[in-house]
Amino acid sequence: MTPVQQLVASSTQGTPANRELRAAGISLLRQLKAAGVNPACGFFGLMGVWFALFLGFSIGVLGQPNTNQDSAASVDKPLSTTDVERFSGLHRGFYHAALRGTDWLARQQRADGSFIGGLIPCMDMVLDTAHYVRQVQATLALAQASRLTGKEKWAAQAKQAALWLLAGTVTDNQQPIGRAPRPPLVLMSRLGTTGLLLAAIHELPRPAPDLLDPAEELAYWLQRQQHEDGSLRLGEPGLVGLPPGDVPEESDPGTYGPGQALWGLAKSQIRRPQVWKLEVL
Fewest CB within a 10 Å sphere: which of 61, 80, 143, 258? Predict the structure, then answer.
């Protein structure tokens, strides 16, 4: 049994939502430490907001009773007022803090669906240098919030952001067609970014075929990055040696890429189940 298979087997206890959030939360805590994000910093960028929202919703939901079955219908079911009332005081605090953060994030979206890169409050400056990876992370946070709360406005905004992100992808000439973010938007972290974009689309409540069909192409591209020994290809020959940029995911794709890619495939398996996805996992 491979390490990934062992991880999947060990995650079968508890509800599907709790298993998923627990695994993702552990990964993100490590990512937060590696990225050196300082909550006291005066810069509020997409990366910090994404971590805060994801962990806020995760901590708020982890350990709470959930009797839903593992299906697409149950995945789309938002938390009810009764569910939130069952939270402990600490969990409820995290949950409401995440709601306020999501409201702020939603206000940072531009008309085209992209997000403002960040703010420097003390100088009243807007940073317009958001990397494609950060845009995917912001979209993922907004999609998760819309699914958990049932807020249609947030769902519409997350869908618009996902369509904007898909416009920055390219397809290959293989069959079935694969899709991934195009260079130079993403260079060394195409594996992880593709996985996060795939997860973001499947985090949306009731995504339509105009999103699910391109998402399957993202999944096919991820499948083709797997070696015979089960490991995933981190880089591409034509891109190796290019400057990594100032995003940690670009400079260290091995830390982020495989886990994010597998998470995206696991998310897509709920709505678009395929045997080959389980084989990759």
Answer: 80
Which strand (E) or helix (H) includes residue 126? strand 125-127
Quick one: average pLDDT of 153-169? 97
Per-residue pLDDT band for 222 (boundaries 50, 70, 90) equals: very high
Gyration radius of the chain's alpha carbons: 18
Q: At what angle do helices 190-203 and 152-166 cross, to 10 degrees?
A: 150
**Enclosing H/E stretch for 125:** strand 125-127
- pTM metric for this prediction: 0.74
Q: Cα separation of 124 and 207, whole Å?
A: 36
| Average pLDDT estimate for 103-111 | 93
Residues 6+ apart with CB under 8 A from 197: 136, 139, 162, 165, 166, 169, 181, 218, 264
Single-letter amino acid code for the residue at 93: G
120 pLDDT above the threshold of 50: yes
Residue carrying the six token digits 């600490």: 90
Burial of 246 (0-12, 13-18, 19+ CB in 10 A): exposed
Phi–psi pair at 115, nearest 5 degrees: -115, 150
